[in-house]
């Protein structure tokens, strides 16, 4: 599999307003911009950044702490490292996995600007809801216990968790 550098990535062609990115190893590239379209089986390193409207083929893998802008779409069976962040309206193909849990309904729900400008993410899996709040990641029960311990049982983060659960489509 070809390994791409940042310079090689920057030179890839743009067709129909999307940068065309063939299957490859992009672990040396840190910033991708918006509207990129990747083939299947691509791999990406940790802390890489993608802006809005990027498309990824099936079986792509991402390192931890990657960030994705709004409206990105991911093909079947993509895998994500811990602490990745997703913009609004991202969609996920069947059997995508985040931090070793299967994303059940192909969506990650989020609430932005909660508390100290934090974002809260929620995933529905076959085992129930999982949440990411800052560095914390765990089940709904673990999230609520963590919020109670650090803040209180009346903290706004509880309202954000309830809101995310109501967003399920």
In short:
The protein has 169 residues and is of the alpha/beta class.
Give a verbal description of the structure:
The protein is built from three helices and 18 strands. The model has no long low-confidence stretch (mean pLDDT 89). The strands form four sheets. Strands 1-2-3-6-9-12 form a six-stranded mixed β-sheet, with no helix packed on it. The protein has 169 residues and is of the alpha/beta class. The chain has helices at 6-10, 140-150, 156-166, and strands spanning 14-15, 18-21, 36-38, 43-44, 49-50, 55-56, 61-62, 67-68, 73-74, 79-80, 85-86, 91-92, 97-98, 101-102, 108-114, 118-125, 128-133, 136-139. The chain is elongated, with a radius of gyration of 17 Å. It folds into two domains: 1-96; 100-169, no CATH class.
Which key phrases capture this entry?
single chain; 169 residues; alpha/beta; 2 domains; 6-stranded mixed β-sheet; 3 helices; 16% helix; elongated
